[in-house]
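Appendix B. Chain record.
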Amino acid sequence: MRVSENGKRLCALYCRVGGVSEMDREMLEHQCWTLQDFALKQDFEVAGIVKALESGLFASRPSIDDLVALCGREHIHYLVVDSLRRLCRSSAQCNVILRRLYSAGVWDVVTRKEGTIFLKGVFDNSQ
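Structure tokens predicted for this chain:
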């Protein structure tokens, strides 16, 4: 497991809001600030942040591509997100996105609202 110089687990943050207005931009910044605070309280060090002003209706979107690339490139095993609904909207969409993240090396998705999703337990047993 890759850790920071001070021994904390490294994580990526994913922040997404589905609009492009000035209010949406402010909500996105607030979401990122809230997640950074949450991650620090969970004893993580933030290694990267992906922010998106885009719809969450599709599994294939630029911010997910950026997130998968970041996690793979930086060997990040933990993703922190406000809610699973920030990543995906349906179970089929969640399956696609979470599988991509797991393939990139993400072990756990830690949500502020629902708790932790242990990807290894989900995808190691479902071939």
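Further analysis of this model is presented in Appendix C.
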